[in-house]
Design a protein that fits this description.
Chain A is of the alpha+beta class. Helix content of chain A is about 40%, strand content about 25%. By secondary structure, chain B is α+β, with helices and mostly antiparallel strands. Chain B has 6 helices and 13 strands. Classes of the chains: A alpha+beta, B alpha+beta.
């Protein structure tokens, strides 16, 4: 016969939250920020092929921290959701808020009902146009969704990085300034991050339908000069 | 639709078509005999720097259903896809192909090779054509950036994919267009030569095939001409196209409608 011990729900939630936070804190952080002409996502990522930042749709990008296999599955689900929504209705009907809500629901479900909570935090960004606003939604491991007005920081050291970035940012700046600030905030005062360890993706209108670009090391060095 | 998550064992992978089938996005195939408009002649000609494609603009059933249909579309930056057969299915097919290539690229962060794209379309054509009378026969042309050549892939009704090294035509105007292409093709055509040959072949198809719309000088509607080269997909602007057909028409008017055995 199996014995079940009573665990108070408060304790259960605390334990799960602690478990998820620990997993997330192991990885490096990500900064997503709106600049005067688009959105830039910056990750510290020593791998040049296991990406943390990717394209979801024409004007939507994704960034994830924590366990790679878990957020990559969410990224794939996001692409499938966006492509099938655009296929069923029209490209203009794919909106980031609906996607952010689905992510929040899924993360919330996994937190309360799953075998274990997902050890991820994700950011979905939308580049605005005449009909939609530019948006940054941060979704935490337990499904909390927050609408970030100018920038968002994900990952273990989020609060420290956030305060460093907040200090440097007053209004929307150019891509160069925003990227420098983001990299500075990620690195902190005592450290510099090699360009090869940076992953940078931007959403910017350049006259074509798809607005996401992954910046090469050379482009990043040029911007950081 | 909710968030489409799959376990590792039944994940459809980067193929949008398989995902669409699993989630019921593709309509069920039926053998009901639905009358529908057909899209007709498209020509692809290989030249030394890529491929030229020419497509007529007419969709017809028992009467002309539309005069300004676009039967050639970019599937992505380096690939063009053209359709003949049932218009409704054809346009759905183009949408599916466009989305599938982009979907694969986003999912895997690598673009499909041209041959990969050509093979990917085979089972989609097979599924459509073997289960429904609403046939679709597409034509795929692209710039192969690995081999640095333009390549043409044609399909048979059962989805078989065949590479053509000279030219290819699809649709009911094929016999007339093909005759012109056979006589006019040579292996060192340049872009302008290929455009001229393709336009002439389209003129012949429009002249003899009632389902192919040739140049329409009354409405100012002309077949569309595109090139696929190292610079990607480019559509010739309509003034340029109009001028090329006007010249052909002028010559043919002067000869009293006789092609005269020479390619003009």
């Amino acid at each position: 016969m199996t014995n079940y011990f009573y665990v108070a729900p408060e304790q259960l939630i605390r334990d799960r939250a602690e478990f998820a936070q620990k997993g997330i804190a192991r990885g490096r952080s990500i900064v997503g920020a709106i600049f005067d002409n688009g959105v830039v996502l910056v990750a510290e990522n020593p791998s040049a092929s296991l990406f943390k930042i990717s394209e979801i749709y024409d004007r939507i990008a994704f960034a994830g921290v924590g366990k790679y296999n878990e957020f990559d599955r969410l990224r794939e689900a996001g692409i499938r959701w966006a492509d099938s929504t655009g296929f069923t209705y029209s490209r203009g009907d794919v909106d980031v808020r609906a996607l952010a809500n689905f992510y929040a629901q899924h993360l919330g479900d996994m937190f309360t009902e799953g075998q274990k909570p997902l050890e991820v935090e994700i950011l979905v960004a939308q580049l605005g146009n005449s009909t939609r606003p530019t948006k940054l939604y941060r979704i935490a491991y337990e499904g909390t969704i927050s609408d970030e007005p100018r920038f968002a920081v994900l990952g273990g050291d989020a609060e420290t990085i956030k305060s460093r970035f907040a200090a440097s940012e007053d209004s929307l700046e150019s891509l160069t300034t925003t990227l420098k600030n983001a990299v500075g905030a990620l690195a902190g005062p005592d450290r510099t991050i090699e360009v090869s360890d940076l992953e940078v993706g931007i959403l910017e209108d350049r006259g074509s339908r798809r607005t996401f670009t992954r910046l090469h090391d050379a482009q990043v060095s040029e911007l950081l000069r | 639709m909710g968030l489409p998550l799959f376990s590792a064992s039944d994940d459809p992978g980067p193929s949008f078509f398989h995902f669409a089938q699993m989630s019921g996005l593709t309509p069920p195939v039926s053998s009901a005999n639905v009358p529908s408009a057909h899209a007709t002649t498209v020509i692809a000609v290989r030249y030394n720097g890529g491929v030229v494609m020419v497509g007529d603009r007419q969709a017809s059933g028992n009467y002309i259903a539309s005069r300004d249909v676009r039967k050639i579309e970019p599937a992505d930056h380096y690939t063009a896809i053209a359709i003949s057969g049932t218009a409704a299915r054809g346009f759905e097919f183009i949408r599916m192909a466009q989305l599938s290539f982009e979907h694969y690229e986003k999912m895997t962060d690598t673009a499909l090779t041209l041959e990969g794209k050509a093979n990917y379309l085979s089972p989609i054509i097979q599924r459509n054509n073997l289960t429904s009378p609403l046939m679709v026969l597409p034509l795929l042309a692209g710039w192969d950036s690995a081999a640095q050549v333009g390549r043409i892939f044609e399909y048979d009704g059962a989805g078989g994919c065949y590479e053509r090294f000279d030219f290819s035509t699809i649709g009911s105007g094929t016999p007339f267009a093909e005759g012109t292409l056979r006589l006019g093709f040579n292996t060192d055509l340049d872009q302008d030569g290929a455009i001229e040959l393709g336009a002439l072949a389209m003129y012949e198809a429009g002249d003899n095939d009632p389902s192919t719309g040739g140049p329409d000088f009354v409405r100012g509607l002309f077949p569309m001409i595109v090139t696929i080269s190292s610079e990607g997909f480019r559509e010739l602007d309509s003034d340029d196209v109009a001028e090329r057909f006007r010249i052909i028409n002028q010559r043919r008017t002067e000869s009293g409608g006789v092609a005269g055995g020479s390619l003009r």
